[in-house]
Amino acid sequence: MPKYLVTMSGEIPLRSHRTRPRFYRRLIENIEDAVEREGGKLIKSEILEAKILLESDREVGALLAHIFGVHRVGRVLEYEFRDLKDLAEWVARNSIERVRGKKFAVRVKRSGKHSFTSIDVAREVGSMLKPYSTGVDLENPEIVVEVEVRGNKVFLYEDSLRGPGGLPIGVEGCALVLFSGGFDSPVASWFTAKRGVFVDFLHFILGSTESTYYAFKVAQELASRWLYGYRPKFLIVDFRDVVAEVSKKVDWSYRQIALRALMYMAASKLAEKLNYDVLVTGESIGQASSQTLGNLSSIERAVNLSKPVLRPLIGFDKDEIIEYSRRIGLYDLSSRVFEACAIAPTKVVTSTSREDVLRELEKIDLNVLYKALEAVRVHDLLSSKPEVVVSESDLEIDFIPEDALVIDMRNPESRRIKPIEKAIPMEEVVWDTIPRDKVIVLICKTGSLSLLMAKTLREKGFKAYSYRGGALAYFKKACRVK
Ligand code: ATP
Ligand code: MG
């Protein structure tokens, strides 16, 4: 069974003796959760000062390198030795193949009482391995034989990976991230979780539910790669009526700002009701005109927030954020979330006062916002499918989920001239073979026949949707995407 020595982040062992056990316990629980999510089992976990010795029923090195609170993970061999000679022989025996024909160095760490020093161990092992190698090179070795002696046990590192550092998730409080799914808010979520915070995600549907679909997928990817020890949630608030209210009542140049203020307000209300400690956004100073220092300040002061807003990316440049997005493994999915910026495409005032924002908010009927909040939907990220972003009661959909069955209701001539990708013609569908939980998207010419058909199919128990606007909308969108 593979064994690992996990080095915790440097600051964990420095905590007071009262805090430390809680941090250790939490880290081990999170590791257990990670291994179990992969279908594995932790066989043993033992705390050895600033390290944890783990044994699991499968290889989990790469997984452990994704757990906050882990500084380094080494896959190790373990041996209980009698004396220095026995120790050195065991290490040498297990290292011959690695050093063969290479320049090497032996590095030793030791704790406990012994009749020998670390240097004695290095010297002994070094002289045993030398004949197999091309020599010892302490400055620039090709291979490092890394040995750790603890009491009567010795560990030999086979390989090692760097962990993300930080604190184990769960030792701090809970954050609600305003999550659009673009590059910034996922990276902001990652940095917040890295400091031991439980993060849940709050997404506002501003336009197309396709953005929401990808935002959900980004959050799901983030949760399954990095968020261990709890079940992250994805909260959806349909803000389209709020967007419409803003468009109706607020001047072009203030729409972005008013919308942002309303998002803060809504998030604050939810955070209060659901007991989150803070709100988090992906904002950074000056990244967009709505994020100038003046606007950030005026917007926040204009709304009476129940919780502080944290902005982990406040000092990051966009390219630094994108670099992190790649490293975290979210770049591809995040780049599919497009911005719902049609509400104010260009002109945004860059310097507002609190009074300006208040004046614009006065125009808004807040009942629209409260109604949207009442209909909040909460999904468990790990067990839900991304299609849940489209409300069950919706008959129309404005995108095609990846594993949906697409049915083309148009006439053969239209289908031949302008085929729809992956669609099958209506008359070829064998209804008996379609599972009732399969998402079906019907596309007709304009979206009206398909709506009737979707209704009928729903009554028969199928998960059918009509593509909003039909083939006309479908092709218009396909052009824009290209
Ligand atoms: P991102 O890359 O996170 O989409 P951005 O650079 O596009 O950010 P904005 O669209 O101005 O910037 O949004 C700034 C922040 O506001 C986001 O990082 C996020 O925290 C929040 N936000 C924006 N849109 C939404 C949304 N639809 N739902 C929830 N939060 C949002
Ligand atoms: Mg955005």
Structure description:
Strand 12, helix 10 and strand 13 (309-310) form a beta-alpha-beta unit. This protein has 3 domains: 3-162, VC0802-like (2-Layer Sandwich); 174-389, 3-Layer(aba) Sandwich (Rossmann fold); 396-481, 3-Layer(aba) Sandwich (Oxidized Rhodanese, domain 1), CATH 3.40.250.10. The model has no long low-confidence stretch (mean pLDDT 93). Helix 3 crosses helix 5 and helix 8 (240-249) packs antiparallel against helix 9. The chain has helices spanning 20-37, 61-64, 84-93, 96-99, 118-129, 184-194, 209-226, 240-249, 252-273, 293-302, 318-328, 331-334, 354-362, 366-374, 412-417, 449-459, 470-481, and strands spanning 3-8, 42-48, 51-56, 70-80, 103-111, 135-136, 143-150, 153-165, 174-178, 198-205, 233-238, 278-280, 309-310, 377-380, 396-397, 405-408, 424-425, 439-443, 463-467. 38% of the residues lie in helices and 22% in strands. The chain is of the alpha/beta class and 482 residues long. It has an 8-stranded mixed β-sheet with strand order 2-3-1-4-8-7-5-6. The two termini are 50 Å apart. Magnesium ion is lined by residues 180, 182, 339.
